[in-house]
Amino acid sequence: MPTDSRFNRLPVSEKGLVSICIEGQTITALEGESVAAAVLQAGVRPSRTTPVTDSGRAPFCMMGVCFDCLMEIDGKPNTQACMTEVRDGMVVNIQRGARQVLGDDL
Amino acid sequence: MAAGIRTSRNGSDVAVVGGGLVGLAVALGIQEKGQQVTIYDEGDIAFRASRGNFGLVWVQGKGDSYPAYANLSRLSARLWGDMAASLEESTGIDLQLSQKGGLFVCLSESELSQRANMLDQMAANHSEGYPFEVLDHQQLKEMVPEIGPEVAGATWGPEDGHVNPLYLMRALLKRFTSLGGKLINSAAINSVQPINGQFHLHSADGRYVSDKVVLAAGLGNKKLASMVGIEAPIFPNRGQVLIAERVKHFLDYPTGHVRQTAEGTIQCGDSKEDVGFDSGTTTDVIADIARRAVTMFPLLKDVRLIRSWGALRIMTPDGHPIYQQSEEFPGAFLVTCHSGVTLAAAHAGPIADWIAEGNPDPVLNLEKFHANRFQV
Amino acid sequence: MNSNQFDLAIIGAGPAGMSAASTAAKQGLKVLLLDEQPRPGGQIYRNIGSPALKDRQILGPDYYYGEKLLTAFSGAGVTYLHGATVWEVTTDNILYVSVKGESRRFEFNKLLIATGAQERPSPFPGWTLPGVMTCGAAQILLKTSGLTPPGPIVIAGSGPLLLLISCQLIRAGIKIDAILDTTPGKNYRSALPEFLGALKGWRFVLKGMRMLSEIRKAGIQQLSGVTGLSADQDESGNLSAVTYYDNKGHQQTLSCSSLLVHQGVIPNSQLTRSLGLAHVWDEVQKCWKPELNKWGQSSHPDILVAGDSAGIGGALAAELQGKLAVFEIVRQRDAGSATSGNNEIEQEKAIQELQQQLVIRPFLDRLYSPAEEFMSPPDETIVCRCEEVTAGEIRSLANDGCRGPNQTKAFCRAGMGPCQGRQCGTTVSSLLASELKASPAQVGYYNIRAPIKPLTLGELATIGNADSNC
Ligand SMILES: Cc1cc2nc3c(=O)[nH]c(=O)nc-3n(C[C@H](O)[C@H](O)[C@H](O)COP(=O)(O)OP(=O)(O)OC[C@H]3O[C@@H](n4cnc5c(N)ncnc54)[C@H](O)[C@@H]3O)c2cc1C
Ligand code: FES
């Protein structure tokens, strides 16, 4: 039975590193990579549950067309993780079902 | 009805031209009376108000200077609950009907007082009473805490509600076909010919004969009505509508411009534009709609718009329906209106009865909906 | 001309967009290039400005070829906005683009749409499970992050990209547990007549054979004629295994952590559709594409389309098409003037090169035409990932009288979610077509309207406001 859901990092060229917090877990990501990549590396699966049936999903296309990578990024719900670059100190959470409305509280 | 002598295998007792909300509701009502109905409708792409509308079952302010229309809207709103229940029971489709009242939110004091005056006037014209309330900002905020600071207030109509208009269509169609009603798709009817007390309908690839014909072809009615001796001044009026993503439930009541659907999506509308047969969208108008929506509910600012569309309302010069049997060619009926959602229950009920059996229920005041009111 | 007006606006900074931008700048045009990605390169040359992987062998020379394009374009003096999502283009030459949550408005004389392709949505039971991702997605993760999926890995589907990602993972030392090839056996027969023609493009043929032998040498279990693909889940709802029928008709199950799927690519037609441009159904590539002349001119006089969004031709073809579109724009500009005809030689050369690039397509398109089970999947399969509508629901609506995708959309919400129909559009059209015994061309496609990508109501509300730049 496969257990580990973490993507593995091959040797990469010199790049800056940033720290981000995914579901309370602090991980190191490469400067310039997408939040979705960082989430896959952290092995957080699913990264969202659907508003329709609450079923789990994870990044599928990595190019902005499937909208299955929606997450709560720095408090902003339903944000496409594959289209958002990591930033030091970023807080990322699983998008659970339908989003909240926030309006001006942002 | 007198045994229809069918001259063609395609024949039926009643032909309904147009498979939008109006056509479907009327067709279902007649089919329920045991008469054989066939609906003729266009294909996938057509001007379809039924697919583009806002989903309100709305009474407040309708027919402000025309009591017969106000009464018809209220009657239909009252019949709606039973219709929805029976459709749900027979088709299993939940229409998501909610009739807990509705708000018309006004951004400025002058908008609010104008509206209050209009409703006062209506109350004066309706001896049996016309229920509504005017809410100032504070009163509105108690009811809907999410309202924005710039909002002046709202008028409240206890008889208003909303529904999923697409599921309404689906349920009407399902019920209609399950009762043996026939739907012929991709058959734009180009002409209707009255011949020996019957009606011959022509499409690009067929000819159909029936004893009665109901024209419910929306904007297509103008052309077809004249073929059965009815002058129908009908023209398009565009509305643009926005749909934003699903959010957790926050809005209990529909408003005239923003409502939250049962799925959680936010629907914002609707413009009224005289642009002819163009159902497109325009950036300026959708931006205006968004502006009004976020002024009403500032918490919608970060909610994402997913889709927008334009749809064409079916308008008459006074905005009220036309229900009329041709005097020249009895058996030909015109049914046209721009609030086919609200009026669906009336169409499936008393209007369908009138077409199927004659003798309109006096409560309908049918003579008020005759097109001759436009001949001044 | 003010700062919001451009001779040429280009949407998409892939090979087509980059080559068009540098060619146009050289011809003296004032060029605006917009792309929603944070860096230029498009899908094939993703991140080419700062490749993640240390080992250049893994992605190979075809990837790093992009550096040349990037250099040419970087020095060309083009106005380039990245992270810039175009959400509306109007037929009267205005576009709206969202950058960092703020919308800007630009006017253009000519527009080149170079928005590329997306992977063909290839629904099968379980394709929504976490753990299933497209081969293209896996490749993007390699290019941008040097990440590889957790094993056991199974790769399933059909098409050149399937072979390519397999080879790239092999070169990275990653174990692939199995490759399940779903290419229907009959495709080999229908592609055969095109093989001689394909030989004129011998470089591609050779490349393909090299990939196949690389996979064989790695000793990977490779099965052809696979059907009945489905993904299974564990108790937490994640991918646990893949089940399929082998070419003898025996059902097999492989346990896996990652399932990478692919069924070729199709033009990204959201924008061209929203503009109401004429589209045709390509029966061989099994996709819609805009109707264009050989220069990429669409049915709108000021709008051209190049690269994969014009029809699938690959990166090198895209680069040439981008150039050709610009030559056409310049020709129209100079028509009748003294400078007209200046580019004719270069233009002719580009046309010939393009033909050479496309010579392999008839063979590839036939060979990798998707199996019927992905165009018209089994009833229980989710076809609309956003609204979770199944193939069975679409079929039953067809039987209830729906004649096209806009009717089914109204009745069951397929196509109404945040992806705006990108993941279900072609499937719903082909499902309806097979149910109604018609062609997708007759059945049609979703009406696509603004916004092309979701944007916040608050941002939209700034349009036309006195204090915004829109
Ligand atoms: C923006 C907007 C918002 C609205 N909001 C509301 C609301 O909140 N509440 C409410 O009650 N109402 C609302 N409406 C109105 C409601 O949608 C319409 O009243 C109703 O759909 C009209 O139904 P119809 O059948 O007459 O017209 P349509 O729905 O347009 O249907 C006409 C049908 O006839 C077919 N047809 C036309 N010509 C021919 C021909 N020659 N042969 C065969 N078939 C033909 C067409 O293809 C079409 O299917 C709204 C409308 C719009 C545009
Ligand atoms: S993974 Fe598909 S949109 Fe982000």
Mean pLDDT score of chain C, rounded?
Answer: 93
Major sheet of chain C? 7 strands, mixed
CATH architectural group of the largest domain in chain C? 3-Layer(bba) Sandwich
Q: Which CATH first-tier class of the largest domain in chain C would you pick?
A: Alpha Beta
- Taking the alpha carbons of the first and last residues of chain C, their distance comes to 16 Å
Name the CATH superfamily assignment of the largest domain in chain C. FAD/NAD(P)-binding domain
Query: How many distinct beta strands of chain B?
Result: 17
Euclidean distance between termini CA atoms of chain B: 36 Å
| Tally of individual helices of chain B | 9
CATH fold-level topology of the largest domain in chain C: FAD/NAD(P)-binding domain
Multimer state = heterotrimer
Query: Runs of chain C with pLDDT <50, length 5+?
Result: none
CATH topology (fold) name of the largest domain in chain B:
FAD/NAD(P)-binding domain
Task: Tell me the CATH architecture of the largest domain in chain B.
Answer: 3-Layer(bba) Sandwich
Average of per-residue pLDDT values of chain B: 91
> Taking Cα atoms only, what radius of gyration of chain C do you get, to the nearest Å?
22 Å
Main sheet record of chain B: 8 strands, mixed
Secondary structure: helix percent of chain B: 25-40%
Class based on secondary structure composition and strand pairing of chain B: alpha+beta
Roughly what fraction of the amino acids of chain B lie in strands?
Answer: 15-25%
Task: Tell me about this structure.
The complex is a heterotrimer of chains A (106), B (376) and C (470). Chain A is mostly beta strands. Chain A has a single domain, classed as Roll (Ubiquitin-like (UB roll)). Chain A has one helix and eight strands; from the N terminus they run E-E-E-H-E-E-E-E-E. In chain A, strands 2, 3, 4, 5, 6, 7 and 8 form a seven-stranded mixed β-sheet that branches. The termini of chain A are far apart. In chain A, 49% of the residues are buried. Chain B is an alpha+beta fold. Chain B folds into three domains: 175 residues, FAD/NAD(P)-binding domain; 57 residues, no CATH class; 80 residues, D-Amino Acid Oxidase, Chain A, domain 2, CATH 3.30.9. Chain B contains nine helices and 17 strands. In chain B, strands 1, 2, 8, 9, 10, 11, 16 and 17 form an eight-stranded mixed β-sheet that branches. The radius of gyration of chain B is 21 Å and the shape is globular. The N terminus of chain B is likely disordered. Chain C is of the alpha/beta class and 470 residues long. Chain C folds into three domains: 191 residues, FAD/NAD(P)-binding domain (3-Layer(bba) Sandwich); 143 residues, 3-Layer(bba) Sandwich (FAD/NAD(P)-binding domain), CATH 3.50.50; 68 residues, BFD-like [2Fe-2S]-binding domain (Arc Repressor Mutant, subunit A, Orthogonal Bundle), CATH 1.10.10.1100. Helices cover 35% and strands 22% of the residues of chain C. In chain C, strand 4 and strand 5 form a beta hairpin. The longest helix of chain C is centred in the last third of the chain and has 20 residues. The complex binds flavin-adenine dinucleotide (FAD) and FE2/S2 (inorganic) cluster (FES). FE2/S2 (inorganic) cluster binds next to loops of chain A.
